[in-house]
Design brief:
Structural class: alpha/beta
Strand order of the largest sheet: 1-2-3-4-5
Shape: globular
Number of helices: 28
Number of strands: 15
Radius of gyration: 28 Å
Helix content: 40-55%
């Protein structure tokens, strides 16, 4: 169905006095009316006009097909605009529709109408279909890692649907286009992931917002069952994927398993004493006799333990001792915390703080932040040949060529989270923070200054130009030193300052657009790119450093071999003042 601007304008003009809302609301009305062949007076009752809709723009219950349609509409070709709608549905919308939520006197009338229809006709529903309808290409929407993450979070709420209807009900999520008559390549039919789990005498503690944490010992065998059922999806809330067996902690786990299972040198009970434990988030944990059932579990920390155990079992599967000692395998226990009734934001905070206690770099703790997912989308979508954003430690190394092709990633070198942070800091002139990168990621205020929404609007080509400076930084410093080793002997002490100033030289270059087209679309460090940045270092940055160290008090500090001033933002600002007088440079950031 190819709706037009004129049709929307006409509907808005005809009905705005009686229905209210904004112009874009009438896109949904026309879609429901024309696609499902519903009389307008009925369609008006099944579309949201105005706000407070909890992520639901429309619905329709079809008794003949036994389908309950839930709609979200965007009069745009940009599928990422659905992100906020997903978030509202996940955080509270699905509970408002299918759960036992608290009352909200301000909620949209649509929700009241839907609840009334559901209670009257709940026996007629066998499928819930959530359609995200927009003007763009559904296939492109399917490739979005951001929307994939949000879709999976939304799928995790399926248990609410099953509980409401008192039976398993199919859930499918799909992107639909009004312009191309295309649907997504994949209709995501969702089943509720529920797994049995033996928990030894758990205890429970409440959080500040009603969150629940159950603590007890669980069998490692049960975790393997969940991992083999869910695959990498089990790890999607972790800060990193499973790392190589060659990593020291993983080698230690593998040795321990070998001694317990195959050699019998160590009692299985020792594993729990020697292991820090794991943390899981879940939609629900309920007891069924002596067994517990966990719904939609996600591992927040402990991925290395699970993957190492799984690889160990796979590698030794031909060893007859594995079968003989199955009871030993099933008697390996580990301390576990299971968190339920928590928001995604709460889970992110728990994940970060859980992993602070382990030897994990501060930037790895931010791998699953929403801004990181959005940046990943930017690098994939803004360039003709997509670039993979390695926000999660070890993720790129775990991808096959087929995986990259499925993601439409053509280049075989990723953008790394840590280096990208340094690039943003360099463009901002925050030379002092570049030397304290760990603190930047540990402090919320500093972190949000570096990774803010403005970065999403920056020219991706320019980001790449400044990012690649890092690969040639040693050469740039050598170019400066080659113009006078005795005069520029301090250049190596100004490594980050040189990066920041070369970046400003790029952004102030009159031929920036031409260079961005030539060098800003690939991770390759071209010869001509190297010549360009080398020229900036030798013919611009060198003179800024020369003038700087001839000034007081910097001349005195150089004479007594004190170089710490070269790592300050104040010195960057002074260099930019000199650059303005020389060449009319102004400070430009990647925003």
């Amino acid at each position: 169905m190819n709706l037009t601007e004129q049709q929307i304008d006409q509907a808005f003009s005809d009905l705005k006095k009686s229905c209210g809302g904004v112009r874009e609301d009438y896109f949904g009305l026309l879609y429901v009316e024309n696609t499902l062949h519903i009389p307008r007076e009925d369609a008006q009752l099944q579309v949201a006009f105005g706000g407070n809709d909890y992520g639901l723009d429309g619905y329709h219950l079809d008794p003949e097909s036994r389908n309950l349609y839930l709609f979200q509409f965007k009069w745009s070709a940009n599928a990422n605009l659905f992100a906020s709608s997903f978030e509202r549905l996940i955080e509270s919308g699905m509970t408002k529709i299918f759960g036992n939520s608290l009352q909200d006197a301000q909620q949209n009338q649509l929700l009241l109408q839907l609840r009334r229809d559901l209670f009257e006709k709940k026996d007629l529903v066998s499928r819930v279909l959530i359609h995200f309808v927009f003007k763009g290409d559904p296939v492109e929407a399917e490739r979005s890692k951001l929307l994939e993450r949000l879709r999976e979070d939304l799928e995790g709420k399926k248990y609410l649907i099953d509980e409401f209807f008192g039976r398993p009900v199919d859930l499918a999520i799909e992107f639909r286009s009004t312009q191309t008559r295309k649907a997504g390549m994949v209709v995501h039919h969702k089943i509720t992931h529920t797994y049995p789990m033996t928990i030894s005498k758990p205890i429970m503690r409440l959080g500040p917002g009603g969150e629940e944490m159950s603590v007890g010992f669980i069998r490692l065998w049960d975790l393997i069952g969940i991992f083999r059922g869910m695959g990498q999806r089990f790890f999607e809330r972790n800060i990193r994927a499973g790392l190589s067996e060659d990593e020291a902690p993983n080698r230690a786990i593998s040795r321990s398993l070998n001694q317990i299972i195959l050699e019998g040198k160590v009692e299985a009970s020792m594993f729990a004493f020697n292991h820090n434990g794991v943390t899981i988030s879940a939609e629900k944990l309920e007891q069924a006799g002596d067994i517990y059932r966990v719904t939609e579990p996600r591992l927040l920390n402990g991925a290395q333990t699970v993957t190492t155990f799984s690889l160990f079992l796979d590698r030794k599967r031909e060893d007859p001792r594995l079968v003989e000692r199955q009871t030993v395998i099933e008697d390996i226990w580990v301390l576990c915390r299971i968190i339920t009734k928590a928001t995604p934001e709460f889970i992110v905070e728990v994940t970060i703080n859980n992993n602070r206690q382990n030897p994990v770099k501060p930037w790895a703790l931010r791998a699953n932040d929403m801004i990181q997912l959005r940046i990943g989308e930017k690098f994939r979508d803004d360039l003709d040949e997509g670039i993979y954003y390695a926000r999660q430690e070890g993720a790129f190394e775990n991808l096959s060529n087929e995986d990259l092709e499925a993601l439409e990633i053509s280049q075989r070198k990723p953008i790394e989270l840590r280096r990208l942070a340094l690039t943003f800091l360099a463009s901002d002139g925050d030379v002092d923070k570049m030397n304290k990168l760990g603190e930047v990621f540990e402090t919320d205020k500093s972190y949000t200054q570096v990774f803010n929404e403005d970065r999403l609007r920056a020219d991706t080509r320019q980001i790449l130009l400044c990012y690649k400076i890092n690969f040639r930084l040693n050469k740039l410093i050598q170019e400066i030193e080659s113009r006078g080793a005795s005069r520029y002997f301090f250049a190596r002490k100004a490594r980050n300052l040189v990066w920041a100033l070369v970046c400003q030289g790029m952004l102030n270059d009159k031929q920036l657009e031409d260079y961005a087209e030539r060098f800003g679309k690939s991770m390759a460090v071209e010869v001509d790119y190297t010549n360009w940045v080398s020229g900036l270092a030798a013919n611009k940055v060198r003179f800024l450093l020369k003038d700087l160290v001839e000034e007081s008090p910097y001349a005195e500090k150089i004479s007594i071999e004190r170089y710490d001033f070269l790592k300050s933002k104040a010195v960057f600002d002074r260099c930019m003042e000199i650059a303005w007088k020389k060449w009319r440079w102004v400070k430009k950031s990647l925003k």
